[in-house]
């Protein structure tokens, strides 16, 4: 049975949270290092083993060859006989084995010769029986345009039951008869074998609909609304090799894989199946994940720890009545409405920073923007004691490791066995998942992460019975 494993390589998961709150005013920020990391997905290769089993081929050949597999009633090259005919009948199932990258066959056949002589002025006919085992071999080559070239050759034969060497006073020339039989088998049986192999190794016919389908976003997890989008651009293939009782190769699908949580992502423009490149693909895969922490979620976290709370500043104190958070030209902007010894709204800005080792997201260098600084210097210098900045930094410290651990668990649960169609099974495991960078978007902080592991897509087509 032929198995096609088609997989999958690099993906991106988007956790989008609804943005809400007051829109920040467009105030000039303090000079700071803006964040704008390049989170372009990293391509990787999903390996797709392809196997053609000798057992399957043996079954198909035997189904296609029953009883008489070759006959010729008008042989004229046997000297001394006025007429001759030969009938070849399969006596036992044909056996198929793998030798190197070729299939070898052993054909047990009965050879029936019907010989007529015109000796002594009269016609005489006699049948001669013999048992022969014929050895054949088929080699294969998969071309860059996905076509399969096969070559069937005859390796020899041996008599199991040798026929009588004489018919009356005449000697039977077995070599010309064997040559005729082999030539007939080559014409009759050879194309049958070639057709079976080419049909089962018609990789272009098999992969073209899959190649097209895989570029359409697939719903991986209905409960959590997780979508997978693949963008393949190259197919690699290792040379054919013999392994056990099968001839195998490994296809490598070089692709960008993106995974989203929420609404279905738009499909990328479909690409046609490219030409095949002979090379050894990488055996691992990289899953690119983009996790977005929305400004709305960060705003809620900051509000929970500051709203209606009193913060002392020496002999004075302030109360946080309201807070709004948003992005502004590569920085995070926070507007705070205060009461107490200072009444009014102030603006602060900070630089988001991701520690990829500890997997902690923080807002660094929080400080008043230029307009608020100028205002406070005139009316409330005591506000520069750092209490607001410190409390906001504490409120906006987000440990991401538990989220990444949970995400890895969810991915492994989904990839354990996912079937987009009855005859397609996606299976894999994520061994590591870690953040690699940070970028700001209109709706939040996008954290790029890479998941590494193994991924296989199996498609099994039922063989003919």
In short:
With 465 residues, the protein is an alpha+beta fold. Helices cover 20% and strands 48% of the residues. It has a domain at 66-188.
Structure description:
The chain has helices spanning 54-64, 174-188, 190-200, 203-213, 295-306, 370-379, 387-395, 401-415; strands spanning 3-5, 44-53, 68-75, 83-90, 95-99, 102-117, 124-142, 148-161, 166-167, 170-171, 218-221, 226-237, 241-243, 246-261, 276-278, 285-294, 310-313, 316-328, 331-340, 344-355, 360-368, 398-399, 418-421, 424-440, 444-460. The chain has 465 residues and is of the alpha+beta class. Strands 1, 2, 11, 12, 13, 14, 15, 16, 23, 24 and 25 form an 11-stranded mixed beta sheet that branches. Strands 3, 4, 5, 6, 7 and 8 form a 6-stranded antiparallel beta sheet that branches. It has a 6-stranded antiparallel beta sheet with strand order 17-18-19-20-21-22. Helix 1 (54-64) crosses helix 3 (190-200).
């Amino acid at each position: 049975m032929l198995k096609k494993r088609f997989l999958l390589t690099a993906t991106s998961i988007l956790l989008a949270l609804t943005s809400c709150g007051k829109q920040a005013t467009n105030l000039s920020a303090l000079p700071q290092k803006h964040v704008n990391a390049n989170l372009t997905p990293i391509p990787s290769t999903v390996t797709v083993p392809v196997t053609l089993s000798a057992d399957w081929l043996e079954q198909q050949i035997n189904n296609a060859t029953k009883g008489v597999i070759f006959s010729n009633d008008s042989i004229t090259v046997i000297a001394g006989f006025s007429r001759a005919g030969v009938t070849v009948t399969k006596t036992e199932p044909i056996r198929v084995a793998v030798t190197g990258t070729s299939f070898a066959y052993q054909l047990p056949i009965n050879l029936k010769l019907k010989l007529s002589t015109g000796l002594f002025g009269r016609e005489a006919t006699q049948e001669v029986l013999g048992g022969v085992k014929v050895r054949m071999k088929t080699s294969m080559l998969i071309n860059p345009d996905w076509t399969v070239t096969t070559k069937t050759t005859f390796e020899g034969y041996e008599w199991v039951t040798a026929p009588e060497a004489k018919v009356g006073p005449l000697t039977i020339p077995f070599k010309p008869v064997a040559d005729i039989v082999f030539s007939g088998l080559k014409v009759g049986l050879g194309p049958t074998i070639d057709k079976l192999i080419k049909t089962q190794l018609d990789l272009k016919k098999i992969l073209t609909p899959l190649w097209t389908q895989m570029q359409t976003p697939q719903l991986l997890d209905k409960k959590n609304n997780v979508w997978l989008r693949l963008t393949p651009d190259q197919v690699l293939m290792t040379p054919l090799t013999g392994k056990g009782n099968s001839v195998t190769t490994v296809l490598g699908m070089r692709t960008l894989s993106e995974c989203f949580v929420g609404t279905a992502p738009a499909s990328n423009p479909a690409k046609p199946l490219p030409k095949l490149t002979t090379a050894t693909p990488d055996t691992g895969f990289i899953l690119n994940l983009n996790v977005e922490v929305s400004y709305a979620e960060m705003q809620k976290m900051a509000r929970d720890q500051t709203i209606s709370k009193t913060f002392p500043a020496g002999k004075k104190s302030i109360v946080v009545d309201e807070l709004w958070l948003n992005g502004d030209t590569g920085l995070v902007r926070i507007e705070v409405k205060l009461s107490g010894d200072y009444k009014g709204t102030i603006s602060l800005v900070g630089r988001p920073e991701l520690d990829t080792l500890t997997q902690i997201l923080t807002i660094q260098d929080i400080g008043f923007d230029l307009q608020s600084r100028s205002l406070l210097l005139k009316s409330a210098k005591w506000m520069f004691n750092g209490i607001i900045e410190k409390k906001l930094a504490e409120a906006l410290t987000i440990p991401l490791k538990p989220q990444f651990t949970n995400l890895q668990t969810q991915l492994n649960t989904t990839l354990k066995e996912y079937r987009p169609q009855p005859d397609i099974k996606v299976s894999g495991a994520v061994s590591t998942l870690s953040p690699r960078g940070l970028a700001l978007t209109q709706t939040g902080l996008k954290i790029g992460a890479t998941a590494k592991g193994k991924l296989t897509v199996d498609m099994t087509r039922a063989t003919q019975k």
